[in-house]
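This entry is retained here.
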Amino acid sequence: MPEDFAGKDLSGLDLIGADLTGANLTEANLSEANLDGADLTGADLTGANVPRANLTRANLTGANLYRADLTKSNLAGADLTEAKLTEVDLTGANLTGADLTGADLTGARVPRANLTRANLTGANLYRANLTGADLTRAYVRWANLTGSDLTGANLSRADLTKSNLTGADLTSAFLRRANLTGVFGSDFTGAILE
């Protein structure tokens, strides 16, 4: 039976490699917790408070992070495949090399986040705020970026093959050497394509 930590204060705890598969962490306080390599497969972190936490290489496959606060958290190399990240706050988070294949980031706040080499293939970023985010060499194939705010984002060498950019704001976005094969619905007015 999965652990129930709903509403508990787990801030600052050292949970390196912990098995929290399917755990209920709804509205739990995990601020500054060390979850390096932890298994959170299918865990429920709805509304959890997780700022400045270390989730390096954590497995969050299929986890529910609806409206969770992950500001300035380290998710480098984390597996967020098929995770529900609707309305999550990832402001200033480090997602370098993270796997977000098929993740739902509808309405997510991801400004100034580092998504260098992240895999966002098939991700839903509908109306996501990615202002100033670094998506250098990110894989954003077949992604839905409809209505997203990519103002000032760095998409240098990013692979946006067959992504939907209908209504996306690309003002001052840096698209140097980005792969735009099959991209549709886009208006590159104000984007830097050099």
